[in-house]
Amino acid sequence: MKIKKGIIAAAGLGTRFLPATKSVPKEMLPILDAPIIQYLVEELVDSGIKEIIIITRPGFKTFDQYFSRDKKLENSLKESGKIDLAEEIKDISKMAKIKFRPQDKDLPYGNGSPILAAKRYLNEGEPFVYMFGDDMTLAKTPVTKQLIEIFKQENPKAVLAVQKVPLKEVPRYGVVSYKKDAKYKYEISQLVEKPSVEEAPSQMAQFGRFVLSYDVVKEADKKQLGKGNELWLADIINNFAKRGEKVIAQPIEGEWLTTGDPLRFVQTTLKFAMERPEIKKDLIEFIKKEII
């Protein structure tokens, strides 16, 4: 079973939002020297995804412009002697086959709707990857690739990535309740959205990396709205779990980092910076100087 397509919900279509400007969506904000959206695309490409559908709010053309080839700029850079930079910009346009689709205005708000917006690009019975645009990951093996391997192995309705969070942060996220006697140990009975600390069934929080069967598209198409009159992916996934169908919440090898608020955006930037040997030492010295 090959999984060739990935969907990214971008331009404020997720549940968390970091205000940028009216013309620049948050996924175009840079983490070091590349925008968030490029890291997501690279993770998909490194996981074997050949076709990427980026779902945006109507009117956002920034992503299309960024991933389109600009020969005029390439030539200008070459004439200035910046050959390496010209090649780097050229490579961005060749990363994958990328399509851009504004979400129809008649679809309900919520993180389940981008799946319906991308429906025309999916074939009946075809599983696919789904990403939220503000979640990033650091891992030796791409997190998306980890989930794809589990999906191929277990053939569930859905595989969602989870990471353990501190107990006090549980009310911020959707957390999973694992089945006690499942054949695969990470199969869940339900996903509980933003529970209190006392009611939380676990500390394993779901984040924006999924591999989904086409049955999820059919379930989303029912447009059963939940909290806030929105179409929630968590509700869609829960429908399968509550019916006793296989849904897997896979702990990842690596680290989930969100960019959904200013503090976590800065923390994520620092984490990625610490992965860069050429700046790590100077960065550590700078931080030491600032906190002393």
Write a concise synopsis of the structure shown.
This protein is an alpha/beta fold and 292 residues long. It has helices at residues 36-46, 62-67, 71-79, 83-92, 113-117, 143-154, 214-220, 233-242, 262-273, 277-291; strands spanning 5-9, 30-31, 34-35, 51-56, 97-102, 128-132, 135-138, 158-164, 174-178, 188-193, 204-212, 247-251, 255-258. The chain has one domain: Spore Coat Polysaccharide Biosynthesis Protein SpsA, Chain A (Alpha-Beta Complex), CATH 3.90.550.10.
**Structural class of the secondary structure composition?**
alpha/beta
Q: What is the first-to-last residue Cα distance?
A: 55 Å
Shape: globular
Radius of gyration using CA atoms only = 20 Å
Oligomer: single chain
- Residues in helices, as a percent range: 25-40%
- The CATH first-level class comes to Alpha Beta
Find the CATH topology. Spore Coat Polysaccharide Biosynthesis Protein SpsA, Chain A
List how many beta strands DSSP finds.
13
Helical run tally:
10
Count of folded domains: 1
Strand order of the largest sheet: 5-4-1-6-11-8-12
Order of helices and strands: EEEHEHHHEHEEHEEEEHHEEHH
CATH architecture: Alpha-Beta Complex
- Assign the CATH superfamily: Spore Coat Polysaccharide Biosynthesis Protein SpsA, Chain A
Overall pLDDT level: 86
| Low-pLDDT residue spans | 14-21
Give a short account of the largest sheet: 7 strands, mixed
Task: Give the strand content.
Answer: 15-25%
